[in-house]
Structure formats: C-alpha cells, structure tokens
C-alpha cells in the first residue's frame, strides 16, 4: 500500500499557508498541530478567549503545564509575550471580524467548498456544534486539514456533503494526506500531490472531477 502523509506532515503543510503578521485560529484535532510548525510572527487566537499564545505543550513536558492555559480543544499551551485573555463575547466578535485565517478539520468538503465538520453527538466522530460555524463564515480564509478518505476508504471530498453543513461555500483550500486542492469558481484545482502518488490515483479517491494545475507538483514543506 502506498504511503500517505501522516497527521503531523499534513499540519506542517497547512502551517506553510500562514505568514508573519497573520492572525490565525486553529480547530480541534489535526489543525491544532499547526501551532508546532508556524513561522515566527503568526498570532494565534482561541475561541475560549486567548490571543497571542505560544507553542503547544508537548507530551514529554506535560507535568510542567499550567492547567488553566488551554486552547478551545483542551490542548495545553505555553505563554508568549503580550498574550491576553478576554471573555467569550469579545472572542467571537474577533472571530466574526474577517481578520483571521482559520484551519479547520472536516468530515466532508463539497466541490463548491461547503464544509461539514460537526455532528449532533450521536456517533463517535466528535466535533459537536460550536465555534466552527462562526469561524467558517467569519474568517477571511478557511483552510481544511484532514485525511483524504475515511477509515473505510470512502472519499471525504464529495459532490454533496451528507453530514450536516457547518457553512456553505466557505472553504478556500483543502490540504489532505494526498493532495493540496484550491476551491475555485470553476471547480477543485489540484495543485500538489503526495510523493509517490499520481493524479489518477488521487482522482480515484475524490468524488468530484479535479482540474489539474498546469504546474502541478509534489507536496512541498
């Protein structure tokens, strides 16, 4: 079986989209790993009321973690100069301002950029309704970081989402363990593929028809 990118490598590629001076909010799970790889100067915000925090606390350092310093996903974080705390109303006012780039996980993304990343808590997937909706409609750019298929091998990039929608036509860029795909008005533009994978193989695991970029290349970190 061909090798796919692991979760840390997906996060590393997603972090490449963040630049010095950007304000960013990272979703739960895989997206939160981006905090380990971002360049200096990216300012992180968490919807539980924190702005300007430092890297996540690694497992080997967990004994020294401050129990009250956690992001919205419950991950321990480190302080940074200028870090501030505020109430939830202020936090969601920031999120709705159009100033943030957000990296979110997804159960499904449609060919139009519709996002489904929550459920009603009736199965084991997690991700109940919450700040993701505000981020999806309020951010200036939405990036999804996820596996390309389910554990059963079914496409997560689909023509129409079957899960309840978080927001319509909100996703700008899809980064998976197989590909980097732009969501455009003409359709899904395949820009990068994982090392060792072909366009044909990626297409076979993607429900909508992909447009192949003229300068398509292997995923770069």
Written description of the protein model:
14% of the residues lie in helices and 24% in strands. With 221 residues, it is an alpha/beta fold. The two termini are 23 Å apart. It is globular, with a radius of gyration of 17 Å. It has four helices and 13 strands. The model is unreliable at 122-127 (pLDDT under 50). Strands 4-3-2-1-5-8-10-11-12-13 form a ten-stranded mixed beta sheet, sandwiched between helices. It has one domain (7-218): Glutaconate Coenzyme A-transferase (3-Layer(aba) Sandwich), CATH 3.40.1080. The longest helix has 9 residues, at 7-15.
Write the CATH homologous superfamily: Glutaconate Coenzyme A-transferase
Determine the number of helices (DSSP H or I, runs of at least 4 residues).
Answer: 4
CATH topology name, in short, is Glutaconate Coenzyme A-transferase
The CATH class, by name, is Alpha Beta
In angstroms, what is the radius of gyration? 17 Å
**How many DSSP-defined strands?**
13
Strand order of the largest sheet: 4-3-2-1-5-8-10-11-12-13
Q: Uncertain runs with pLDDT below 50, 5 residues or more? A: 122-127
Query: Largest sheet, if any?
Result: 10 strands, mixed
Q: What's the number of structural domains?
A: 1
Average pLDDT metric: 90
Task: Give the helix/strand class.
Answer: alpha/beta
What share of residues is helical? 10-25%
């Amino acid at each position: 079986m061909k090798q796919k990118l692991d979760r840390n490598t997906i996060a590393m590629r997603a972090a490449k989209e963040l630049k010095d001076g950007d304000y960013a909010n990272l979703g739960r799970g895989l997206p939160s790993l981006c905090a380990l790889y971002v360049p200096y100067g990216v300012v992180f915000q968490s919807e539980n009321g924190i702005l300007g925090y430092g890297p996540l606390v690694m497992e080997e350092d967990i004994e020294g973690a401050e129990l009250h310093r956690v992001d919205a996903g419950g991950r321990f974080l480190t302080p940074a100069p200028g870090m501030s705390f505020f109430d939830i109303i202020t936090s969601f006012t920031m999120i709705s301002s159009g100033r943030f780039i957000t990296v979110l996980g997804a159960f499904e993304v449609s060919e139009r950029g519709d996002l489904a990343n929550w459920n009603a808590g009736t199965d084991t997937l997690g991700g109940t309704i919450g700040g993701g909706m505000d981020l999806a409609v309020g951010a200036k750019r939405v990036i999804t970081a996820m596996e390309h298929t389910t554990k059963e091998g079914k496409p997560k990039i689909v023509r129409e989402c079957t899960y309840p929608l978080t927001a319509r036509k909100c996703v700008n860029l899809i980064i998976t363990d197989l590909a980097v795909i732009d969501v455009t008005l003409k359709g899904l533009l395949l820009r990068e593929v994982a090392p060792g994978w072909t366009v044909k193989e990626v297409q076979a695991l993607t429900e909508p028809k992909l447009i192949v970029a003229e300068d398509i290349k292997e995923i770069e970190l």
